[in-house]
Automatic annotation (TrEMBL):
Source domain of life: Eukaryota
Name of the protein this chain belongs to: Reverse transcriptase domain-containing protein
Length: 200
């Protein structure tokens, strides 16, 4: 279970910062509109009128032993449905995802890696000097430094297949989605937190 008191990945807030996030989203969207990166219909969509704070909950890890040392093993989930950054993250994903898939280092999932290994095997035996291995990174996404991820996205957009929106505006949207990932725990009764990944 995600340690909500872990200040390496969560920052406690004294109040719900959702209204402040809406203002920041509005500023970014207004700039994109003035830069003619998006049209008015898209701008209206990106700034929702009815928003709610992201919520934290957990799901049991059913593919593993579910109880360890008397504690239920769970996977943390932060649901951003209806949050101020939900639609902005849709925009970022829509434009960035196809460009990321063009990178040589891109793997979709474990099945994708297995397909790649199968293709390598079809070419014949590997030289004896080659050793194949796998690693499993615990808490991979919270461990990734944000600035490196942002730099990687910038590189992926160097040869993007579209002119608008601009790389600069997409990166600002990405930063906003990463830096404004506020959520409530226990309906706000447990407090409000900011979830951030990696080193800020």
């Amino acid at each position: 279970m995600l340690d909500l008191n872990n200040n390496k990945v969560n920052q406690k807030n004294d109040y719900d910062k959702t209204p402040e996030t809406i203002e920041k989203v509005t500023l970014v969207v207004t700039k994109m509109l003035s830069d003619v990166d998006i049209d008015e219909k898209t701008a209206d969509y990106l700034v929702p009128s009815d928003v709610k704070t992201s919520r934290y909950y957990t799901l049991p890890k059913t593919h593993k032993d579910t109880v360890v040392n008397g504690h239920l093993k769970t996977r943390p989930v932060i649901s951003g449905c209806g949050s101020p950054i939900e639609r902005l993250s849709e925009l970022v994903d829509f434009y960035i995802n196809p460009e990321i898939k063009k990178l040589d280092s891109f793997f979709k999932d474990s099945k994708d890696v297995l397909k790649l290994i199968n293709c390598i095997n079809e070419k014949g035996p590997l030289p004896s000097s080659v050793a194949m291995f796998t690693i499993d990174v615990k808490a991979m996404y919270p461990s990734m430094p944000q600035h490196l991820g942002i730099e990687g996205v910038k590189r992926a957009l160097d040869n993007k297949s579209f002119k608008k929106p601009s790389t600069g505006n997409l990166i600002e949207c990405l930063k906003l989605c990463l830096n404004e990932n506020h959520f409530e725990f226990n309906g706000g009764g447990g407090g409000w937190l900011l979830k951030f990944t990696g080193h800020r």
